[in-house]
Amino acid sequence: MATSDGIADLFSAVERIELALERLESVVARREADAREEQGAQAELHELKSRHRKLRERVTEELQQLDLLLSSLPQ
Questions:
Q1: Chain centroid to CA 5
Q2: What is the reported pLDDT for 1?
Q3: Is 74 helix (H, G, I), strand (E, B) or coil?
Q4: 32-74, pLDDT tens digit by residue?
Q5: C-alpha angle 24/25/31, rounded to 5°?
Q6: What b-and-e string marks burial along 25-52, b requiring 16 or more CB atoms within 10 Å of the CB?
Q7: Using one digit for the tens of pLDDT, what is the confidence trace for 18-33?
Q8: Dihedral angle of Cα 5, 10, 16, 20, to the nearest 10 degrees
Q9: With bands split at pLDDT 50, 70 and 90, how would you rate the model's confidence at 4?
Q10: Between 1 and 5, whose confidence is greater?
Q11: What pLDDT, on the 0 to 100 scale, is given for residue 3?
Q12: Distance between CA 4 and CA 9 in Å, rounded?
């Protein structure tokens, strides 16, 4: 009888270990997904900053052109 209780305890311990591993794997998967999402957000932010810089440069150039046109008009 003691042997069957020992085997039952062993199976119970293995089940608890398997459940703990499942929980750990779930946490790791969520963190990996979060990291991928963060990388995507960083890439998007970089792209938006680049587009903003280019747009600002373009607006500056256009304003300079407008200033030249206005200065060439008769007063």
A1: 49
A2: 46
A3: coil
A4: 999 999 999 999 999 999 999 999 999 999 999 999 999 998 8
A5: 90
A6: eeeeeeeeeeeeeeeeeeeeeeeeeeee
A7: 999 999 999 999 999 9
A8: 170
A9: confident
A10: 5
A11: 66
A12: 8
Alpha-carbon separation of residue 5 from 1, 15, 16, 26, 35 (angstroms): 6, 15, 16, 31, 45
Q: Where are the domains of the chain?
A: 1-75
Which amino acid would we find at residue 18?
Answer: E
In angstroms, the CA 66 to CA 50 distance is: 24
Distance CA 13, CA 11 (A): 5
Task: Retrieve residue 23's tokens.
Answer: 């929980």
